[in-house]
Structures are given as C-alpha cells and as structure tokens.
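User: Run a structure prediction on this.
Assistant: Running it now.
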Amino acid sequence: MMIAIDTTRYVDFARGEANAVNRLRTAERILVPLIVMDELHAGFLASSRGTENEAGLTRFLNSPRVDVLLADEDTSHHYARLFHQARRQATPIPTNDIWIAALVAQHQLYLSARDARSITSRRSPDSETARSPVRARLPTGRTRRWPPKW
C-alpha cells in the first residue's frame, strides 16, 4: 500500500510508537507532503534535540521507499475546493491541514494520521477515524463527508 503521512504520524514513528512503526514498516511506499517537512523543520528549530531530529529525518528520507510529495498547479485547485467547502460549512481547518488534504486527494492516497481533525481523500486503516467515504472530524466530535459531492 502507498500512504502519505502527516506530521503527527512521523513524530509517532520517530518516537517508536508501535502502531506507527508497524504501519510504516509494512507500507510499500511512503510519501511525505512538503508541508509536513516544513512543520517538522520548524519544530526541530524550536527543539533542544533539533540536530538529532534532523539526522533522524534525513535517515528516514534516504529510504528508497520514501519520497517527498510536492504541490503543483493541480494541487492548488484541490486546495481551493477544500478551502471553499470548509468555509461554507464554517469548519475551522488549519491551512497546513488543507494543503496536506489537497495533496492526498489529488494523488488519491491514504493518509496515516493521529489527529482526528485531519481530512483525507481516503483514510488509512490505522487511523483513529477510519471511515469510508471520507469524513472530517470536527472539534465537536461530529463528522462531515469530505470532499463534498460536487
């Protein structure tokens, strides 16, 4: 299975959390959205273990099964639709999460995530909110279909 990971899932993996380690070890290919890389690097700068964390990320990225997932013009169209839908539903979603969701939707990937508020095009079986079709978990605990039917 080819999966994308979010920042929380990489952190779980780096800390040796069993579920994350098992999920990533069994994945055929792991895609790390560039936005996740940005969040990780920003966190490393604020950490007293930044150099150690950077080295661990470099080892992870050097795996032949791991690639960085970049945004392109098509991603911006997915982003715009997701952003617009979130606004229409008055659903506050962090900008970085919308970018990650746009990349995942564009490439029809599974997203391995710990954060129940993440939105995905298809939810990975290890996720705490595994559902089909896709749903976004709101802070209230309710769920909504994502992306909406156009």
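Helices lie at 7-14, 18-26, 34-45, 50-61, 73-88, 95-106.
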